[in-house]
Amino acid sequence: MTNVRALAAQTLFQVVDKGQSLTTQLPYASRQLPVKDRALLQQICYGVLRYLPSLEHYCQQLLEQPLKGKNRVFQFLLYVGIYQLQHMRVPAHAAVAETVNAANKLQAPGLKGLINAVLRNFQRAQDTLEASADAIPVCKYNHPGWFIKKLQAAYPQQWQDILHDNQQQAPMWLRVNQRQSSTADYAARLDGEGIAHTLDPDFVDGILLTKPVDVQQLPDFAQGASSVQDAAAQMAARLLDPQDSEHILDACAAPGGKTCHILELADANVIALDADGERLKRVDENLKRLHLSAQCLEANAATPDTWWQGEQFDRILLDVPCSATGVIRRHPDIKWLRRATDIDELAALQASILDAIWPLLKPGGTLVYATCSVLPQENTEQVTAFLARTADAQLTPLHAQDTPDKPGLQLLPGHTDGFYYARLKKQ
Ligand SMILES: C[S@@+](CC[C@H](N)C(=O)[O-])C[C@H]1O[C@@H](n2cnc3c(N)ncnc32)[C@H](O)[C@@H]1O
Predict the structure, then answer these.
(1) Are residue 17 and residue 118 in the same domain, yes or no?
(2) Which residues form the SAM-dependent MTase RsmB/NOP-type domain (predicted)?
């Protein structure tokens, strides 16, 4: 199959109906396309996932009933068509013709008439349909209702900005490998290649690219001169502040972005632990590209008695599994794969990892707790509860308002991804 729209419809069916992640499905579909068409496939899949509730709403109005069973993929093809008409700069006649043509490629010439009619009717009724979608919050903001409610409660002033920022394309940040060059020197090399960028003094290892580029265009990327990592994620290693010769645990390490950053900053003995063996292979690949080394260990952070050798750590990074609600703009499928009930389960898992790992920290040692979530239950509330039940844990404030009743630093999506950090010291 080499039809972009047909592949997009199949990919979206796998993600939305079958619960697969876009991160696994998109590369699979991309490989079937010539390189020149891959960006379009990505743009359509991201776009439909960003606007799914409103696209569903339009189809509800335009079809007598949703397409089901063996025709289900054509429901997603309709979303692909309408998304192009509403949000892309493809001429309308081409968007309709190409979407109808995709039905042929998906072996259903009998549905061409229906698809053509629905797309034409959308064009005719677009203003009325958009107004009716705007009256329904889930369609207006294109986020699940449970998540909108949680944001409203947590951020009475900012919730609409967060929802708006989640719908934007994420910027590309680089992390400069300080073992190979300074940030300023690498920025000068980008200038030499004509790659526009800006620096931000708050992120000393980071460079914000004006436009995303293929990593192959970056100077000495294959040799480990830089990595792609959002600026918010780059704070983890700096807050941990690793020192030479220290014994450090990165307890939820895969795919290894933060492990590698720690090792770029210090000659430390690092254990990179993760429960997922497949993801752990990516840590190894990243270490190799950057010419770094760590001990990679497939194990469960919540049960150290099964793997810990008894030597306490100077520093521990706990970048725990979380709802990933801070990185929705990079992974719009999160909105539809996550359920409200997941949050309680994740919070319980995070608490059990915190409790199990704390005894592994030396007295005087530092633990950095991190999530890419914007939900207080996984962040401030999690750390407040941990401090209350852990007598020898003390908060090391990251800013003036970082206190035990509202601990840590919450970054919201915008300039960087949404992230949360709290730094704890063992007395
Ligand atoms: C947020 S990701 C870590 C990202 C990583 N620190 C980085 O910067 O590249 C969370 C990781 O926790 C792992 N994980 C989930 N449950 C775990 C457990 N019980 N023990 C250890 N790792 C776990 C997942 O496999 C996932 O790789």
Answers:
(1) yes
(2) 162-427
Q: Which of 252, 287, 308, 323 to mutate to test the pocket of ligand 1 (most atoms within 8 A of CB)?
A: 252
Catalogue the E-assigned strands of 300-376. Answer: 313-319, 361-371
Average pLDDT rounded to a whole number, residues 232-260 = 98
Percent of the chain clearing pLDDT 90 (strictly above): 98
**Closest listed residue to residue 220, CA positions, set 174, 267, 170, 263:** 174
CA–CA gap between residue 388 and residue 386 (Å, rounded): 5
Residue nearest to atom 23 of ligand 1 (CA): 275
How long, in residues, is the chain? 427
Peptide bond into 255 cis (omega under 30): yes
Backbone φ/ψ region at 33: left (φ over 0), alpha (ψ -120 to 50), beta: beta
Domain boundary among 228, 258, 293: 228
Residue corresponding to tokens 């967060």: 162
Which tokens go with 41?
Answer: 């496939």
User: 273 CA to middle of ligand 1, Å?
Assistant: 8
CA of 238 to the centre of ligand 1 (A): 19
> Per-residue pLDDT tens for 191-211?
999 999 999 999 999 999 999
For 99, the domain range is: 4-141
**From the CA of 329, how far away is ligand 1's center (Å)?**
20
Q: Note whether 186 and 313 are same-domain residues.
A: no
The answer on 199 and 217 residing in a single domain is: yes
pLDDT in tens, 401-415: 999 999 999 999 999
- Least Cα distance to 370 among 424, 328, 334, 330 occurs for 424
Which tokens go with 12?
Answer: 């979206």
- Examine residue 293 and state whether it is found in any structural domain, yes or no: yes
**Model confidence pLDDT, tens digit, residues 62-93:** 999 999 999 999 999 999 999 999 999 989 99
Q: Torsion angle of alpha carbons 109, 115, 120, 124, nearest 10°? A: 160
Q: Pick the catalytic residue: 45, 59, 322, 372?
A: 372
Decide if 322 is catalytic: no
Q: Which atom of ligand 1 is nearest to the CA of 301?
A: 20
Binding residues for S-adenosyl-L-methionine: 252-258, 274, 319
Atom of ligand 1 nearest to the CA of 317: 6
